[in-house]
Structures are given as C-alpha cells and as structure tokens.
Write a structure and sequence with these properties.
The protein has seven helices and nine strands. It is α+β, with helices and mostly antiparallel strands and 226 residues long. β4 (64-71), α4 (78-87) and β5 (92-98) form a beta-alpha-beta unit. α1 (18-25) packs across α4 (78-87). The mean pLDDT is 89.
C-alpha cells in the first residue's frame, strides 16, 4: 500500500475554507465542532479530469478530486469526511496529513440510480482507508486506466482489505463494496456473540449461543471465499 504521485498538470492547490463546505452540506453543531477540533486546513490539491490527465470521463467518475487535510489530532471523524463529500458532486480521495505521516481514505461515491430516493445527489457508501505512512515514503504512479471511472475503481480497491476482495473478476465495484459491508456486519455479529458467550454462566444458554456462533462463522467463511 502506498500513496500516489499525481501529475503536475492536475495541480489545483486551493485552500478550501470550512464555511464554504458548510454552505453546501449544512452540518449540525456537532459536526462543526468536530471540524474545529480535528481539522487544521483543507486544500483542494488536485483535479483529475479529461483536461488535466488526458483520461476520458465516465458516469462513475466525470472527475476525481484530491483533497489534502492537515489534522490537529491525528484523528478524523467519518461525519467530517461525509460533510465534505456531500459538498462536492464528484468522487473524492482524501490525503490526510499529521506529524510527518500521511494516508489515503476514500468512500465509494456513486451517482444516483433509479432505486435511490435522494434526487440527483451522489450516494455515499463505505469508507476505506490505508495505513499511516512516513512523509518521505516513496509514492507510486497512478494505475494505468482506461478512463477516470476505472482509475477511481483501482484507487478504491488499493484501499480495500485484500482478504475481503473477491477473486471473481466480474464483480462490479458496487458489488464488491456490498460484499465487504456484509463481511464487516457478520464479523461484528460474531464479536457480539463471543462477548455474550463469555459472559453467560448457564451451560444450556452457552450451548445455544455457540450454535449461533458456528452458524455465523460458517456464513462468514462462505462469504469471504466467494
């Protein structure tokens, strides 16, 4: 896992005031407080578009925006990222910076389809993030891509847990994200059942909990192997 080297032709380099984000996403007081506590500065660093990197647009990604966020604490709440994502009608990739470390985080963000009830707003799914790396860590070139949609897909997949990515090549990005969400939900349920099992003192109740645990673990194993 590594950070990407973006072409100089794609440099945008504009500081984005927090109040401009607020105007477009209307956050509540709690989220504004998180901005104040966690975010030092937001820079709209790069714009990946047909004009800047000579890749065709696609419905999934007409453009890809790269935002650099300087953090105050080394942590950022997902609600802060969602607030920024809602303000920009394009896929975003966040490059977080803190204490000479940096990492990528990005949500699967897709255009609305007929089953969505959110009008013409982009739909935010799960976030995926990489590991913190040193500031001097070598960066790699952007993946070779057919268009911006394919590039966006490859960036997101580079952030996904390898053990959860399907070996099936015909999985769409949306199906892949849905599968990972199902895996995470099953793992959460397994963790909950294990805590419940360890707290339970009655053997007959332990037996029933253990049956549920085995079933969920089997479901998880089958889902991961698909």
């Amino acid at each position: 896992m590594a950070l990407f080297e973006y072409p100089k032709s794609a440099v945008f380099g504009r500081v984005l005031p927090k109040n401009k984000i607020y105007e477009h996403s209307n956050p509540n007081t709690k989220v504004k407080d998180l901005f104040v506590k966690q975010v030092e500065r937001i820079v709209w660093a790069y714009k990946l578009s047909p004009e800047t990197i000579n890749l065709a647009s696609s419905p999934l990604a007409p453009e890809i925006q790269i935002f650099q966020i300087d953090l105050k604490t080394g942590e950022i709440h997902e609600d802060v990222l969602r607030c920024i994502d809602k303000a920009i009608p394009f896929p975003l990739v966040f490059e977080l910076h803190y204490n000479n470390k940096q990492k990528l985080i990005s949500a699967f963000k897709r255009p609305p389809n007929n089953s969505d009830s959110v009008g013409n707003k982009w739909v935010l799914e799960s976030y995926f993030d990489g590991k913190w790396l040193g500031k001097d860590e070598p960066k790699k070139m952007l993946p070779q891509s057919l268009d911006l949609g394919n590039l966006y897909e490859q960036i997101l997949k580079s952030l996904m847990p390898l053990e959860m990515i399907s070996s099936e090549t015909n999985y769409t990005l949306e199906q892949q994200v849905e599968k990972i969400d199902q895996i995470k939900a099953l793992q959460k349920e397994i963790d909950r059942l294990e805590v419940k099992f360890n707290k339970e003192k009655q053997p007959n109740f332990q037996f029933e909990i253990n049956k549920q645990l085995k079933l969920k673990k089997s479901e998880l194993s089958n889902l991961i192997s698909r």
